[in-house]
Structure formats: C-alpha cells, structure tokens
Known about the structure:
Elements: H1 23-37, E1 44-48, H2 55-68, E2 72-77, H3 85-100, H4 106-121, H5 152-169, E3 174-179, H6 186-202, E4 206-212, H7 216-223, H8 227-230, E5 231-235, H9 241-254, H10 261-271, H11 275-288, H12 296-319, H13 324-336, E6 344-345, H14 346-353, H15 361-369, E7 373-374, E8 380-383, H16 388-394
Helix pairs in contact: 1-2, 3-4, 3-5, 4-5, 5-6, 10-11, 10-12, 11-12, 13-14, 13-16
Amino acid sequence: MDPIRNPFAPGAGQRPPELAGREKELAAFEVVLERVARGRPERSLVLTGLRGVGKTVLLGELRSMALRRGWGAGKIEARPEADLRRPLSAALHRAVRDLAVRHRAPDRVEAVLGVLKAFALKSNPGDAKLRDRWQPGIDVPAASGRADSGDIEIDLVELFTDVAELAADVGTGVAVLIDEMQDVGADDVSALCAACHELSQSGAPLVVVGAGLPHLPTLLSASKSYSERLFRYVRIDRLAREDADRAILAPVEREEAGITPDALDALFDRSGGYPYFIQAYAKAAWDAAPADPITAEDVAVAAPEAESELAVGFFGSRYERATPAEREYLRAMAELTEGRDEGASTADVAVSLGRKPSSLSPARDSLIKKGLVYSAERGWIAFTVPHFGKFVLGMDD
Length: 397
C-alpha cells in the first residue's frame, strides 16, 4: 500500500480522518450554541476521559463549530503551577478579534480590549521592574477600575461580563475552551466557577468548555459545591465497535482501498477501541500491507511497529517522568490491575509493596501531579493512560 496515501494520523490532538462516534456530543453543543445566542440559559460544558480518547480533538471541533456560527472562540491548554491570567488573556483576545470583524462600533471593541489588557497586566508581580514587566500584545491603553483589582475572582467576572456583552451586540456568543483543565490552580478554578455562575444567572452569552482527566468533576466540586449544577459533564470513552470500524473504513474507502473483516476484528482487539490506538495500529497496518486489501496478517505484522512507536511517544515519554519510587508504585498498580483498564485500592497497593499507606502518599501525590494517575474518590487510584499497566509490566520483561 502506498504510504503517501496513508490516511491515518496518530498524533496528540490531531484530528483523525474520520471523527466517528462523537455525533451525540457535537449535536448537544449545537443546541448550546443556539440557546445561548438566543439568550436562553445554558450550562457550561466539561469533557472528561482518559488520555487517548480524543478530548483535545473534540475540543478543537467544538471550537470550529463556534467559529462557523460567528462566535468568538479562544482555546488554551492549562499547565501545572501556571497562572491562568496570561493564557486566558490570549484566548479572549482571539475571541474579541473574532467578534470585532462583525461589530460596527470600533470604540466599543477598543473599550473591551482595554479591560482585557488591564486584566492581563495583573499577571505581573507588583514589584517587577518596568523592563521586566510582561506586556500583552493588545494595542490599546489599559482601562482603569475594571478587571484590575488583582483578585482573580472579581476580575474574571468583570472581564467575562464585558466580553459577553460585546458578543451580545452582534447576536452571537463567546466560547472559552480549556484543555487539561485539571491542571488549573485551585484559586483559578474557584474564579472560573464563580464567573460561570454569575454569567449563567444573568444569561450572558459566554460558555466555558473544559476538557480534562476523569477526576476533574471532583476537583471542581471541591472548589465550589454548586459546580455540580453549574457544568454539564460528558464522559468521553473508547469507541463502540461500530464507530471504531467506521473510523477505519471511511478513510480507507475514500482512498479507494479495502480492508477485510478479519483485519477490522484484529485492529479492534489490539486498539481496545481507543481512538489514538486505532490511528496508530491502522497507520502501521496500511504501511505493512503489501497489497490491497489490508488483511489480519498485515495487522499482525504491523503490530510490533505500532507498539514500538506507542512505547516511545505515548507511554515512554510519561513513564520517564516518574522517579524510581514512583515507578515502583506504578508497577504495583499494574500488577493489581493486570489485563484490565481499571483502578486499584490504595490499601492494596500498600499491601503489595509491604508498606504503610501513609508512607506512599508522597509518591501517589506526585504521580497525580504528573498526570500519570488519578483518584476520583478516596482510597482509589487508576492510570490516566489506557493500557499503561501492560506497558509498565513489559518494562521488566
């Protein structure tokens, strides 16, 4: 098979050639866009799931939908220990520029940009020298007395309100999309929840769409108890067999090529229905196939190549971030969950390692911060990456 025509594209956040199995989520967001634009109350949205299920891809697709409807839309990726003001300022600057092309009052747009600049400048330390102060790329004077108190909760409510009103002027809305939302700091999470709460009560046309690991709802709830009612949570999981087959068949058929039913069976068995793995194994199978159609034998020949690439780019890059003590913890988890993408009791991990649970807390907490494991409830721990346990066990083989 011609590798140049290979349609499959495994990559972080890269849209697959066929976005299968997400029709329900896309249709639901279409309703959100229409309701908010008409001034109807609607909750913000949070997508949760393991790594490799396509949250980032779906987030990008939702952003594209908003832009097609004339919305302003900005997207950021949260990072641990990083302040939210700067990336959020950049995202909202992009959203305001999207709206500006439709707005008939330049002075009104500039006024909002001035508030946005005032908000952004508060990310600078108060004692920073002038030459060391960060300057956002907003070419208007900073406003005074609006979104510049230094209290992120107060400032964010005021900024969101002004940006939303700008969108209302042109009959649309604003979408703020936040990837890796579990990495947003506690104070910033609280401010986001408060701002969304304020806007939902006033019916302002601005929604936050977050994406993160499965324990994100727990983090939001710990920040603001009303977050359970503030957001609509959507769990993104592996694809059903029918959708997994379509994710492979549609791109292959568009290239006027073929694949046997046995090959589809083999690809589903090896990928487990996880979108990222489907792309990795399908790409390798296409390249390995000597002729059309792709067969189960081609999948078997290609599997080691796909697994080698996953071991380096998907699993290995994460595993390398763990210390020896953390790897010991990961191995104990892998042994307890062997063959299953499920969690384990932290007490069982301690028993397996012959340690007291309290002595393992530092390793567990560090692994959570590094995004390798998550805990959605007390006394329970699981891998954030599908098939990660199998990889860990294979490290010593």
